[in-house]
Amino acid sequence: MMTQDQIFHVLGVIVVASPALLLFMLGFTWLIGLPLSERSTARYTHAAVTIGLVAAATILGMMIAFNTRDVPIELGNWVEIQEEHFHFHLKFAFDRLSVPFSLLSFVLCGTVGAFANVYLHREPGFRRFFLFYSMFLLGMVVSSVAGTIETLFLGWELVGVSSALLVAFFHERHEPVRNGQRVWSVYRIADAAFLIAALTLHHLTGAGDFDGLMGSGSWPESVASIDGQHALIVGLLLLVAAAGKSGMVPFSGWLPRAMEGPTPSSAIFYGALSVHLGAYLLLRVSPVLAVSVPLQVCVILMGGVSAIFGAMASRVQSDVKSALAFASLTQVGIIVVEIGFGLHYIPLVHMIGHACLRTLQLLRAPSLLKDYQTLENAIGARLQKNPSVWEELLAPRQRTWLYRLSLERGYLDGFLNEYIVRPFVRAFRWADAMERRWTDFLIGTDSRESDRVPAFDESLEDLG
Residues 221, 98: one domain? Predict the structure, then answer.
């Protein structure tokens, strides 16, 4: 007879293992040259999502029934260095934050998977889409239930890789590949901040466990075990990581470019789950925010500026996907402001409700445009919208200036291109040229092309 802890442990492993097995199955069959058919891919995807969803829902039911607030799943140390007081502890934590977010991940990924099965029918990249989709599902589940900062970073990276690959899904054209590169470049900056925060946390607490950072007690009653000065340093690094992942100011320029991917990936990434992952990170470390008032002010300011910017940019977009992406940014900014004010359950409920709504909006967008055109053709005229309140309050010159600022998306795209993407691409192309020079030297060949390090402007000529 299994004990209660053993049942929790088995269910927790199933929650993580179901998307992992799906990714393994789709990836392995692809590698051996025997990819699954569309029907088999859809069936296995549906089965993996259903099994994970049922296991997560069972955990939630048992937690309510037994009045359990925190269920840790220990899988041991994978790396342990006694001299440096460092260890990589693989641990999953099922609590009142991770369980609802993991359930949300399974529900929305299942919805988008069912939609994509029909939407991408007979698309040449059908199997490739579901391979990246399974990678994203695994990343979201691992990020949701991570009990250590290293485990969270593992899921964080899976989400980032699948995101960039799906932005560049239609790689036959140059523009999706360029935009995927831009998204990946911004993610690298955010991930670097995340890694530095993880190393700082290890230096302060000797481990990456959230228990060591949050102290005793389950979320959200836990109290951070570090002082305000250290909390400010770690919190600012995590705030940069969250801003890059959620597209907050000043990293908002890549959001419309991420719409190059298929509609199902746009819905699940930039309308529902991935765009909320930064806010989820801040909510997970909310006890750290409570220790430092300056850190709370920074969180509130970044959330408020992002919300205002998203509201302005969404009103002037010429395509529905970009408009919805910036509308999502507005809500994410508001959620971050709520977190900065020390709220816990309100931003969690806000995230869940907004993710569900935005997913359905993005999935409905293609057919909505067709219905809109049909309606205009039926009445023989374009639909007119009523003047906004801003047209009555602001002078024409001020409206023109704000309109241009919004239309140019706050000039953040140029900022990212000049100070993030260009240096990133230049550094990696320089490293590639040096690697070619080194390998040519080892094998005894003389290749002028590999010896030549590309110039700055030449290495960036395809960035647009």
Answer: yes
What pLDDT, on a 0 to 100 scale, did the predictor assign at position 450?
45
- Answering whether pTM is above 0.90, one says no
Cα dihedral sign for 37, 40, 42, 45? negative
Question: What are 410-415's contacts with CB under 8 Å, separation 24+?
Answer: 410/249, 410/252, 410/309, 410/312, 410/313, 412/249, 412/250, 412/251, 412/252, 412/253, 413/253, 413/254, 413/257, 414/253, 415/250, 415/253
**Does residue 457 register a pLDDT over 60?**
no
- Of the residues 315, 346, 368, the one at which a domain ends: 368
Tallying the residues shown for the chain, one arrives at 464
Each residue's pLDDT tens digit, 109-165: 999 999 999 988 888 889 999 999 999 999 999 999 988 888 898 899 999 999 999
Shared domain for 129 and 57, answered yes or no, is yes
Dihedral angle over CA of 12, 152, 91, 296, nearest 10: -110
Distance CA 322, CA 22 (A): 31
Q: 75: burial class by Cβ within 10 Å (0-12, 13-18, 19+)?
A: middle
- For the segment 80-104, the average pLDDT, to the nearest whole number, is 77
The pLDDT assigned to 213 comes to: 66
Residue 167 sits in the same domain as residue 44: yes
**Cβ(264)–Cβ(125) below 8 Å:** no
Q: Hey, what's the torsion of the CAs at 46, 41, 90, 51, to 10 degrees?
A: 20
Written as six digits, the tokens of 94 are 């099922």
Residue finishing a domain among 333, 368, 403: 368
Which residues are CB-neighbours of 5 under 8 A, at least 6 positions away?
none
- Domain hosting 448: range is 412-459
Phi and psi torsions of 138, nearest 5°: -65, -40
**Cβ contacts of residue 135 below 8 Å, gap of 6+?**
23, 158, 161, 162
Residue 236 pLDDT more than 90?
yes
- Regarding whether 326 and 439 lie in a shared domain, the answer is no
Contacts for 395 with CB less than 8 Å, ≥ 6 apart: none
> What are the tens digits of pLDDT across the range 364-409?
887 887 887 888 788 877 776 676 666 677 777 777 888 787 777 7
